[in-house]
Amino acid sequence: MKHLVTGGAGFIGSHLVDALLAKGDEVVTYDDLSSGKKQFLAQHDGNPRHTFVHGDVLDAADLALAMKGSDIVWHVAADPDVRTSGYRAGVHVQQNVVATLRVLEAMRVAEVKRIAFTSTSTVYGEAKLIPTPEDYAPLHPISLYGASKLGSESLISAFAHTFDLSGVSFRFANIVGPRSTHGVTYDFYHKLKKDPKRLEILGDGRQHKSYCHVDDCVRAMLHVAERFPSRYDVFNIGSDDAIDVFELARVCTQAWGLDGVELAATGGVEGGRGWKGDVKRMALSTDRLKRTGWKPTYTSAEAIRATALALAKDPGPLR
């Protein structure tokens, strides 16, 4: 098969490219490198089955040219940081909603019929049912990031039914692992590099969330792609548990060999949120996915520990 991966030089995208090439398939990586890194794909230099295109997903014409002949588009490109929602609304709309529209327009021109989209648990907002299943309603996102992803899902569903495409959206828990360039583990690592005795925690530290290792995430995506929906479907991807931020911090400091670290919660906003739009409690039901034969191999704590060790191994251990 031939695949086009938007955002394929990013954290999740590069792991997806690795997995697709490992299957023996052909991959076109399409990335503007605004947040992705070419070094994440350096291991594929010289591989005749991999092509890198430096391009902007907002350019539907160039995108259509790059995806010509592809069997499936994996739309991973996005502005990934939910914390910027309060002051970068236009960026989320452009990079998430408008970009998805451009991808769909390019698919029609290039006559590509299948799209897999990386969405987010934040589309559920503050769900009253936890773990939250895919058919939970109503969906009331509390961040502009979540709203932009929900809007993108709606566009894909509408295009699928209007123009005879097949689409699937993956609603992710917090995905962690090697090559992550943002998120709580990444932030903790760099805060402790500056001061290994004190760790600032945004919010009240009691935010309770699910963390999924990127290996489990990509394996789930490929698993669903083998059973691609005839029109449109949605799948949650996450771990089977959740942990709070204090426990996450303890897992990280233990992994980095740090003792006696003061965990200093800021108190946060709106009753302990880390930032405006921060969902305090999140865990996804993955029963639908598990009924197809997939299951996670990491718990939330195991995924965080593996991520912490990968962070320390790359730039050097904390001392």
Q: Would you mind describing this structure in some detail?
A:
With 319 residues, this protein is α/β, with parallel strands linked by helices. It folds into two domains: 201 residues, Rossmann fold, CATH 3.40.50; 106 residues, UDP-galactose 4-epimerase, domain 1 (Alpha-Beta Complex). The chain is 36% helix and 19% strand. The chain has nine helices and 14 strands. A seven-stranded parallel sheet has the order 3-2-1-4-5-6-11, with helices on both faces. The longest helix is centred in the first third of the chain and has 22 residues. The protein is globular and about 60 Å long. The mean pLDDT is 94.
Compute the number of structural domains: 2
How much is the radius of gyration in Å? 19 Å
Structural class assignment: alpha/beta
- The ordered string of helix (H) and strand (E) elements is EHEEHEHEHEEHEEEHEEHEEHH
- CA(first)-CA(last) distance: 46 Å
CATH superfamily of the largest domain, please?
NAD(P)-binding Rossmann-like Domain
Architecture of the largest domain, according to CATH?
3-Layer(aba) Sandwich
Q: Proportion of β residues?
A: 15-25%
Q: Strand sequence of the main sheet, in spatial order?
A: 3-2-1-4-5-6-11
What keywords describe this structure?
319 residues; alpha/beta; Rossmann fold; UDP-galactose 4-epimerase, domain 1; 2 domains
What's a quick, concise take on this entry?
The chain has helices spanning 11-22, 60-67, 89-110, 144-163, 184-194, 214-225, 245-255, 287-290, 300-313; strands at 2-6, 26-31, 50-54, 72-75, 114-120, 166-172, 174-176, 198-201, 208-209, 211-213, 232-237, 243-244, 262-265, 281-282. It is α/β, with parallel strands linked by helices and 319 residues long.
